[in-house]
Amino acid sequence: MRSTLDLVAAIGLAIGGAFGLTGTFVASDALRETVWTVDGMAIVVATALLTMKYQRLGNDLVAAGFLTFLAGESLLLAGNAAGLQASVPSYAGGIALWAAGLVMVSAQATFALWMRLTAFAAALLFAVSVLMILWGAPLLPTSAPLPALGYPFLVLTFIGWIWTLLKAER
Questions:
Q1: Please, what is the end-to-end C-alpha distance for the chain in angstroms?
Q2: Cα-trace Rg, the chain
């Protein structure tokens, strides 16, 4: 059963990473909101399963980090249907929680160093983006270089988590 749940979590992370990046480049508002909703649902499922996995393993900080990430993703989901401009408040809150969750998951040596470094890089970029939004910068979820520069680091982190989940099955 546990390996099946690991596979479901890995698939959720893969869908979340692929659809999340895709949504950043989609021109149609309705399509972007749809793609990001699928992305968000997949990530919520994946991080819920990862929370339970690491809680059962007794790694409370990592489990709490995944739970914090899940809370952030839920805020992002809540803002999707509002459109880019109207979603900025929930987006800022969501990526703030992403940053906190990524730091918590990566604070211990549970994952390989490269995964932890990509997570810290994403967390830093998202935290800077949040501060810029709070200080009045007109950033949207699709703005470049920030916050868009954080997404590839987040997806690399997801790839590492997927690799860890699938490696554990062998």
A1: 14
A2: 15
| 103-143 pLDDT, tens digit each | 999 999 999 999 999 999 999 999 999 999 999 999 999 99
Q: What is the pTM of this model?
A: 0.95
Q: Which residues contact 70 (CB under 8 A, 6 or more apart)?
A: 43, 44, 47, 48, 51, 101
98 CB neighbour count, 10 Å cutoff = 28
DSSP 21-73: HHHHH---HHHHHHHHHHHHHHHHHHHHHHHHHHHHTT-HHHHHHHHHHHHHH
Residue 168 has pLDDT above 70, yes or no: no
- Per-residue confidence (pLDDT) for residue 169, from 0 to 100: 55
Q: How many residues does the chain have?
A: 170
CB 36 within 8 Å of CB 84: no
* SS (HEC) of 99-136: HHHHHHHHCCCCCCHHHHHHHHHHHHHHHHHHHHHHCC
d(CA 124, CA 119): 9
In the prediction, which pLDDT does 3 show?
87
Closest C-alpha to 88, from 78, 98, 103, 97: 78
Contact 97, 75 (CB under 8 A): yes
